[in-house]
Each structure stands twice: as structure tokens, then as C-alpha cells.
Amino acid sequence: MPNPPPSLGLPLRIRSHRPGAAGPWAREYLAFNRRFALYGRAAVVSVCAVPAVVAMPVAGMAVTAAIAAAALAWGWVHVWLATATAIRPGPLLAVDLLVMTALCLSQRLTVPDTQTDHGGTWILAVVNFTAVAYQLTLRPRTGILATLWLCCADLAGAAFRPHQQWTDALPVVGWVLVDIVLAQAVVRLVLGESRAADEAARRAARARRHWEAAEARRTAEREHLAALHDTACATLLIASAPWATMRPETLRAQAARDLERLRAEQPVAGEVDLAPLLLDEIAAHPLRVTARIDEDLGTVWRPAATALRGSLGEALRNVSRYAGVDRVRVTAERTEHVVVVTVADHGVGFDTGRVPAQRIGIRHSICGRMGNAGGRATVESRPGRGTTVRLEWPRV
What we know:
Layout: H1 24-55, H2 58-84, H3 89-105, H4 107-110, H5 122-137, H6 140-160, H7 166-230, H8 232-240, H9 248-264, E1 271-273, H10 274-283, E2 288-293, E3 299-301, H11 302-323, E4 327-335, E5 338-345, H12 361-372, E6 376-381, E7 387-393
Parallel strand pairs: 2-4
Antiparallel strand pairs: 1-3, 4-5, 5-7, 6-7
Helix pairs in contact: 1-2, 1-5, 1-7, 2-3, 3-6, 5-6, 5-7, 6-7, 7-8, 7-12, 10-11, 11-12
């Protein structure tokens, strides 16, 4: 799941409208609300301050300019306090309401007497945006109570103005309440959709984890079956054949090697030196092997080393069983971070397109094993032309 976006440290504490932890979509939406509330409100005050001063008569410009400058300064100080300090949300909200209340009560000094339309005052514009910002960042109950306080302060400020009754401003202030209802509805709607997207992402992630776990179990089962096929089953098949001439002590030694091999197949993390594993595997087969192991073969991921050794062992067993020769050439080298192991013989060969479906040696014990480890195996053979098995890890 993606990490949450960085917080701006806004002191107006974010609270979700539904129980439960917010996911990445919901966190991103809430973070956008915080940025919009902080910087948008400071920008609105900045835009309104200059026209407010210009609209006043010359005699009242100085006082209006001082009040507008104070409101503007508080708007950006509020941003700084919210993003650069660890001040508690409660006290900062109280100070903010105090400053906004003082601004509302200053309408006698900051709104010209000739402006009788309360809906056109710059202070109402600031109050309206501040009320919406509260809905975006506060708990619903807190946001509504803070907005009602601002509306009362704005009505009181309108009542102090000469030639105007506070009841004249009441319908306009009522629209502020309509705005906060719409803001609350939008927040709930978008936050609900964000939470639905988060829940869908969580369900998809759960399904993916379950699929990956099931696939890991299937891969482990295939590896186990391939290991049994290459070790105990192969030894028992040879020992039970009517023409078998394996002596008891040889059979016991082979069984001991099979047991050791099965134990080594258990998944263990880390890396392992590959060359000794390949040489041990070569030594376990009764073939005359011409081996050329690169000195720079180095270490590889342990599951990959297990897959390379197991695939090499199965390729050598196939030479013993079917090639009709007892000589084979094995090379192992690392080129450009890719390990390549090749097993080549000059035996009878076979038609790769006519291998019976019940024969799992090449399909599972070589190709399947390498594929499960992130590698690749290719088998080239023609009747009378021998066989070459090429193992690559990682896959290129």
C-alpha cells in the first residue's frame, strides 16, 4: 500500500467522517483539503485587502489599511504556525476565532457607509471562505459550531454599522450556512468514495497475497516432486529393474546421497558458492565428465543454486539413461552477471517434439525447476546428433 502524503502540520486536526483508519486515497484527499484550507484562505485575504482599502473614503483609508494589513499578516502567520511549529490545534483555533471575530466587529471602520449591500463586503468573503475551510479540516460538529460563531460575529459587526440593521444582513449570512452544508456534503461524498477506493485496493491486495501464497505452495510442491523424481524415485527405479546390477553397498551409498540431497533442497535464505555445488553434483554420477567451471562463477541466490544443481543432475541422469554414451561435457561460466551451465553429449539424441507427456524429467525437473527460480532452460537435440542442455540464471 502506498505511503501517506506528507502532512503540512495544519493545527486544525483532521478527523475522518467514518470510523476506521484512512487509506492512501482518503489520506490524499484529506491532505488536499488541508492545503486548500491553509493557502486558499490566506490568498483570499490577500486578494480582498487591496480593494478594501481603495473602496474606503480618504479619511478612513489609514485605519482600513491597518486592519487589512493585520488580517493579511495573520493569514500568513497562521500558515507558518500550522506548518513550521508544533503548536496544539485547540489554542490556535481559539486564536483564529478571536482574530476573525475582531475582523467581523471592525466593519464600522473597514466597510464604507455607502456600501449598503452586506453581501458585497470583503469581510463576508473572508468569513465565507473561512467557514468552508473549517468544514474541510475540522470535525463536523466543531466546524459547524465555529461557523455559527463567525456568523454571529458578522451579524454583530453589521449591527454596529450606521444606517444598517443586523436583520438586513441576516439573509446573506444565511447563505454562509448553506455553503457549509454543501461543503459538508461534498466532504462526506468524496471521502466516502475515497474510502471505497481504499477498501477495493485492500481487497485486491489481499487477493494478490492469497494468490502469491498459493502459488508459492504450488511451486514448493513442484520442487519437492522434482527432487523426489531426481533422487529416491530414480534410485528405486534403477534398483528394481530386472537387469539391475547395483550392489547393496552402492545402493546404500546412493540412498544416503539422495537423503542428503533432499535435505539440501529445503529453502534457505542467502547466497551460496555455486562451483562446489556443481562439482559435487558431477562427482555423484557414474559418467566420464569433462568439466570446465569458470573461476569467477562466484555466489548466487541459494534457491537459484539449488535449481541449477538439480537441473544439472537431471541432465546427467538423462545422459546415463538414454544417450547411450558415458562421456559428457559440462561448462559453467558467468557472463554479464548471468550464470550459464551447459551439458552436452554426442549420444543418440531425440526428437524434442515427440517427448511423451508422462515423461516429466525435462519438463519439470529441468525447465520447470529453472523457471520457478527465475531462470531458463533450453534443450536442443536431434536423433543421432546428441543433446545439449543450457541452463541460464537469471533469465535473459
